[in-house]
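#struct-help
A.M.: can someone run this one for me? Single chain, 234 residues.
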Amino acid sequence: MERVLIVEDHHRLADSIAGGLRDSGYAADVAYDGEEALRRLDTDEFDLIILDLMLPRKDGLTVLRTLRQDGRRTPVLCLTARDTTADKIHGLDSGADDYLVKPFEWPELLARTRALVRRGHGLSSDVIEIGDLRIDTRHKSITRSGRLITLTAKEYALLQLLAFRRDRVISRTEIWEHLYSGEGETNSNVVDVYIGYLRNKIDRDFSKKLIHTRRGMGYVLSASEECPSDVAAQ
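D.P.: on it. Structure tokens below:
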């Protein structure tokens, strides 16, 4: 499940955007001023930041420049009432990835959100293909060898995380923090249980396994025939 931080001092608008994103399958958090945003960004990882420029305590451009000076490349969508060409150029030159002027249409904000999340993970399409596994991230549908696979919301979020980082090992701690951020201490047993659920649906009926365990390290989603020797399906 992709995580989005909305940084907006207008509480009703911020909460409305967060609610709409959650209804669309994102995990959405809200910060109501620039200092709160920087605190959140120091402790949590996000797939996208939706950033107002006119914020109390620290303005949006200061937040943006701080992120970029610190070397953080999280995609940023500036969402602001500042609508002149000069304002847009200033925002983009300060490190924003996109710029949307208020008032906006919800379908456009959602489309830009999808595009920036894809870009942040190095994807050019809504569809991820790993061997015969096909994941449509826009419609949240999964097929393998043309067979439709039904997942729960948590199972889909786990599969998408593995797919975004295909061929790379993800630790149990990273998985927990992505799926259960703010919900207590890391519980690797819960992660293992959900990996088991996912394997049961993705791999059980197929001779070629895609979800592999790297012992002592975590999990990897890969169609490679040459998984390292310490990677094995459980």
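A.M.: thanks! The radius of gyration is 19 Å.
D.P.: also worth noting: The CA atoms of residues 8 and 32 lie 5 Å apart.
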